[in-house]
Amino acid sequence: MRQSISTITTLLLAMLLIQGCSKTYLNRPPLSAPTAGTFYQTDAEILAGTGPLYNAAWFNYAGTGEQEIGDVMGGQELTDDYQFRAAWANFTVNENTPALPGAYTAFWSVISNANVVAYNIQNASAGASASAKSFGLAECRFMRASAYYFLALDWGAVPIIYDNISQIGDTTIQRNNLTDVWKFIIMDLTYAAKIMPSTPPQPARITKWSAEGMLAKAYLARSGLTGSGGQRSQSDLDSAKYYALDVAANSGLSLDPSYYDLFTSKSFSGQTIPQECLFALLWVPNGGYFTQNTAQSNRAYSPLITQTGDGWGAAFGASASLLSYYMDPANKADSIRRRTTFFMPGDYYPDISQSTGGWHVDTASFNNAGITAPGATPKNHGSYDHAFIKKYVIGSPADNGGLGGTQNENCNTHMLRLSDVYLTLADAILGNNASTSDATALKYFNMVRTRAGVATKNSITYADLVQERKIEFAFEGHTFYDWKIWYYFNPTAALNYFSTQNRGNYNITYNAGHPFVTYFGSDNFTPGVVNYTITANTADIPFPEAERIVSPDLSKPPVAFDFSKIKY
Description:
There is one protein chain. The protein has 568 residues and is mostly helical. It is built from 21 helices and ten strands. It has helices at 2-12, 43-50, 59-72, 87-90, 100-122, 130-155, 164-167, 178-195, 208-226, 234-250, 295-299, 303-306, 320-327, 335-341, 363-368, 418-430, 439-452, 462-472, 479-489, 491-499, 545-550; strands at 77-78, 277-281, 317-318, 348-349, 359-360, 413-417, 435-436, 460-461, 506-511, 514-519. The protein is globular and about 70 Å long.
């Protein structure tokens, strides 16, 4: 798989490097890129043509957007204010926030390239088999829908771009109604689910089960938007349950027995991905820029971990909100997910720094951590007061089969896991009820908890689902999106949840084998908590200023979309 992805990138990387003064979402590959007349003539070329949709197209999202939107804004991750990234934590993101354009254009990169590849497949001359063409088109529809899933939850009403070729000269394109955007997402995923085989033609490609898993999530999200009076749409809940249950009961897939291994190179060795992973970004260790995984370089808190000169993540760590869950004695049993998610003083990881006997988290550094009083000279204590990020931090190339390098770790990125489908199923069954003891809901909800080594439940509420997702998917870029789905049908409760969440700083000290946490107020000195208010006006992310300049129609009210234009 990795060799083929590398070949794909050599052929098609130009597709992902488009920058221009026209509307971002209408950018398309240059005429020199492979087209229907010169490529897409064989089954292998079609697989090659869709390959970059699994990595390079998503590069800017995976680099910063996933972390800053999904986890910092989602209240999972602590950060400093370098390049104004604290704005994601305190809900003050504006149209000039530095990381905003990269996140926004990343999704349009996926959509634009999916549209062009689909066009070329449809217009290729005879040569490739009908099944290969169908699979390639379904991949394009799936990827386009997945990108729109994030766009809709981040920015709300956005333009529906279905054909770069016909829409390139349309100067009247406006944002479309949010309900139409979700209808478009569901149409694309429904198409993919009907076409996709149960097993992929090449390892690690998406399948019918991938499409059905995303369909379940899309219907669950839309249920809050199309419901009324604080109640979710029952028909959408039923559809979410139908697709999630089909994946859970009939796919033959199961949860990986090791939660820890899911986020290491061990789970992504050779041409395999864990069967729990329904959709992954497939990076190329030792590959070129745009195809490598930069997650560890941004997350590892010390270059001694990576041994490749990067490891710039000392400013990041578990948020006070996430840390407080694990510091509660009632959650002590949730140790598997904790040590997978973030480092704590005294932890030992034998799979990192193997040549020196493993990685011991330095308790002395935590003992020496200091909080500087306002107005005082800062002490040279670094940032060792954080519970640093562990998930996707896997060590040096020597720890990972000799693969990897600077800003290039030997690990793929989960986009959709089976545990997500299980919790989506439980949520759909809960529906508009205050709680449920439904046997199916409990079965799959508790399978997630059992794998984590924590006690099962006899009844679940929406609060239980919110908490379970928070812990299961920490540092996977989920949490803001899960919150937004809640906001759709119960904005008052969702806004209150974020607005009362502790997003302040803290200090960890270590004594006699025990970590102690002191939470600090806004001055980073006086003990206390820090809350930031999110409102209906800040629940949607603003469009980047550069996009408004080149696409002024983004400021106009959204309009209905004419679905008769769509041809499948």
